[in-house]
Specification:
The chain is built from 6 helices and 5 strands. With 127 residues, it is of the alpha/beta class. A 5-stranded parallel β-sheet has the order 3-2-1-4-5. Strand 1, helix 1 and strand 2 form a beta-alpha-beta unit. The protein is globular, with a radius of gyration of 14 Å.
């Protein structure tokens, strides 16, 4: 079964997150890498509302059969080296971490279509 990797913050878990994770599940064995609080601050310019432990706990409650792990605090590429995915799924608006380009990724990448972004985008839900 192919190994499908998904990365994200997953702050305030919502139907858009569920869409991405469900799409990953249709393609194979899912590995979810949750961004550390520090990386969220670095990439988005602000800390998440929910800390990394809370975000992981919510994901595990919804997806107990998925591998869910915290990203490496020092190396964005470490989870890729460790889990060796066959495919990486990106959300429609997902940005690469600083210093990482699509060409750096060791496997094919698929960018998913948006799922009702006018209702479910995390920044809108924060209010």
């Amino acid at each position: 079964m192919p190994r499908i990797m998904v990365f994200g913050t997953f702050d305030h878990f919502h139907p858009g997150h569920k869409f991405v994770l469900d799409e990953a599940g249709k393609r194979g064995e899912v590995i979810v890498i949750v961004a550390t609080d520090a990386h969220v601050g670095q990439i988005k310019g602000r800390k998440p509302d929910q800390n990394e432990s809370q975000r992981i706990r919510v994901l595990r409650s919804h997806y107990p059969d998925y591998t869910i792990a915290l990203g490496d605090p020092d190396d964005f590429m470490a989870p890729l080296k460790h889990y060796k995915p066959d495919l990486i799924l990106l959300g429609y608006d997902q940005q690469m971490p600083p210093g990482v380009s699509l060409e750096d990724l060791p496997c094919p990448i698929e960018r998913l279509a948006a799922f009702e972004p006018e209702k479910h985008k995390s920044s809108l839900r924060r209010g």
